[in-house]
Structures are given as structure tokens and as C-alpha cells.
Write a structure and sequence with these properties.
By secondary structure, the chain is an alpha+beta fold. The protein has a domain at 5-110: Aminopeptidase (3-Layer(aba) Sandwich). The chain has helices at residues 12-21, 24-31, 37-45, 92-107, 121-129, 152-189; strands at 5-7, 53-58, 64-72, 76-83, 111-117, 133-137, 140-146. Strand 2 and strand 3 (64-72) form a beta hairpin. The radius of gyration is 18 Å and the shape is globular.
Length: 190
């Protein structure tokens, strides 16, 4: 299980660091255009944390290495996923998609979709692997997934996943504190 924490507006600066760390080609594939740092920051400022849901996978240094933005729309939800280059191929994208799928289902929406460029082979592969129906048209693609109604299991599973992610974050935070302390002690001895 990959711990995925639902993010709040308090973590917006770390989410900003995540998006700004994406190489320009990754930004183009994630947003459909190469966004400047300023445009990324504008995108982040416009996120409504009360309406939407954001998820993150935390690295050992408490940086967000994978993120998903689930935007609630009228009767459905749109998902955007990004994973930093050094953390790809580990199942983070699929785990983020699965967590977002469950969250959208618990919202009561009937469908979730991802819009991407058809050349984004990683997202296209991920969408197909997750059972999404992919429709391509003139260089762009939409992947749709019909969602079943929420049930007690989907709600309890989401609560468990959030608790596990909070525990993971706390452990990484403690470990980082120990490493800093050890580093400070080492520099005193030298």
C-alpha cells in the first residue's frame, strides 16, 4: 500500500514546490501547455480546497513526490496526476488514481475523467490499466470511468487510508528530525 494523504490548504506551499519541480515537458503533459512558474502559482491559488480534493505522496524528506487534483464538477469529477521523475515506475500514479476514484465515488458523483494529450503515454497507459474508457481526438484524449455508488466499505476504506497516510507522514517527520539531530551532533564532534 502506498500511503496517500489528502492535502489541505496548509500544504499549498509544498504542492507548489512539487509542481515547480516538474520539468517543462512534464508540465506541458500535465496541464496541456508549458506553464511558467507564475502560471503554476496562479493555478494553485485558484484551487478551491472546500470543493476539490488534493492528494499527495510524501517522500522521505517530506516533499510531495506525487500529487493528484480531483476537481468536483457538475455530476462528475476531473482528475489531474503528476509524479516527479525520480519516483516514477513505483505505482504512485496508479495509487493516486485509485485514491481519487474512491474519493469521487464517496462524493456521490457518477463519473470521473482525465483530460490529457494523446501523446501522454504514461497517463494513457495508467487510464487503461485502471479500466477507464479512453477516447482520442485530434491530439487530445479523455479517459472516463463510471463510478458505482458509495457504500460503507468505500467510506471506511477512505478513512483507513487517510489514517495510514497520517501515520506515514508522522514517521517520516520523526525520522527527518532524528537525521537533523544526528547531523548537528556530528558537526559538533568534528
Amino acid at each position: 500500500m502506498i500511503p496517500i494523504k489528502e492535502l489541505s490548504s496548509v500544504e499549498a506551499p509544498l504542492l507548489e514546490q512539487h509542481f515547480l519541480a516538474l520539468p517543462s515537458e512534464d508540465r506541458r503533459l500535465r496541464f496541456g501547455a508549458v506553464l511558467s512558474d507564475q502560471a503554476v502559482c496562479t493555478y494553485l491559488r485558484n484551487i478551491d480546497y472546500e470543493r476539490d480534493a488534493l492528494f499527495g505522496v510524501w517522500g522521505d524528506e517530506l516533499q510531495i513526490v506525487g500529487a493528484a487534483h480531483l476537481a468536483r464538477l457538475d455530476g462528475h469529477a476531473e482528475l489531474g496526476v503528476s509524479v516527479l521523475p525520480g519516483h516514477r515506475g513505483l505505482g504512485l500514479g496508479g495509487a493516486l488514481l485509485g485514491r481519487a476514484h474512491k474519493h469521487a465515488r464517496n462524493w456521490g458523483v457518477r463519473a470521473m475523467f482525465m483530460h490529457c494529450m494523446s501523446e501522454n503515454s504514461a497517463i494513457m497507459h495508467l487510464a487503461r490499466k485502471q479500466g477507464m474508457d479512453v477516447v482520442t481526438n485530434t491530439g487530445e484524449a479523455d479517459a472516463w470511468l463510471k463510478l458505482p455508488p458509495a457504500d460503507p466499505t468505500s467510506h471506511m476504506s477512505a478513512v483507513f487510508e487517510q489514517r495510514a497516510a497520517l501515520f506515514d507522514y508522522a514517521m517520516k517527520s520523526q525520522l527527518m528530525g532524528v537525521r537533523r539531530f544526528a547531523g548537528a551532533m556530528t558537526s559538533l564532534v568534528e
